[in-house]
Amino acid sequence: MADSTVNPELVSFYNQSALFGSFFQLLDPHFYREVGASFGRMDKVRRPKFIIGNYENGWTYGTLFNTSPLGYELYMNNYLHLKGNHFSFYAKYGNPFKNNGAGVTWGNLIESPKLQVSAGLDIWNQDIFGSGVATEFEARVNVFKNVDLNMVVGYKTEGYVLGKQIDSGFNIGGGLIFRGNYF
Questions:
Q1: Mean pLDDT across the chain, nearest whole number?
Q2: Which residues does residue 150 pair with via DSSP β-bridges, in sequence order?
Q3: All structural domains of the chain
């Protein structure tokens, strides 16, 4: 502020963000699994813990609390496995600027030993950018025993989406995935 003090509303917002972030991290059952993995054996398989069912047919959830250009945002993620098909869907709430949204991903739309393809769709309504939509396809191709080539292509309208550009347009990405062998 003009007198070199910090705006009290900003301090309150940061305090609220820190409290909410800690609270929702503690609500995420996978947080405890991650902490346990830090101190566990390297040879133990680390799959998600399902609240209902199992990896083949089951449901579990997770949380993600993130600070963004629109303030903080809370993602309530759900993971559903049905007969080997992997789906995830989320609802998002953001504050102090409205940043609400939802998304769904089919994680193994195509799955073979050499190729895995996923598809996703996000929608949102934001104070600054209005309503928008994004779609994305991701392909993972096995090139060597423990090395995959990862490629992502998508399109989105104007708006804030975690990890994407603000403006509307296509997005393309790629990288290598190295899988360790702990057995």
A1: 90
A2: 140, 175
A3: 8-178 (2.40.160)
**95 in Cβ contact with 76 (< 8 Å):** no
CA-CA distances (angstroms) from residue 6 to 68, 138, 175?
20, 43, 42
Q: Are 171 and 165 in contact (CB under 8 A)?
A: yes
HEC profile for the chain?
Answer: CCCCCCCHHHHHHHHHHHHHHHHHHHHCHHHHHHHHHHHCCCCCCCCCCCCEECCCCEEEEEEEEEEECCEEEEEEEEEEEECCEEEEEEEEEEEECCEEEEEEEEEEEEECCCEEEEEEEEEEEECCCEEEEEEEEEEEEEEECCEEEEEEEEEECCCCCCCCCCCCEEEEEEEEEECCCCC
Instruction: Tokens for 83, please give them.
Output: 């007969």
pLDDT at 183: 47
pLDDT bin (cut points 50, 70, 90) of residue 139 is very high
CA–CA separation, 121 vs 129, rounded Å?
Answer: 18
pLDDT at position 44 is 62
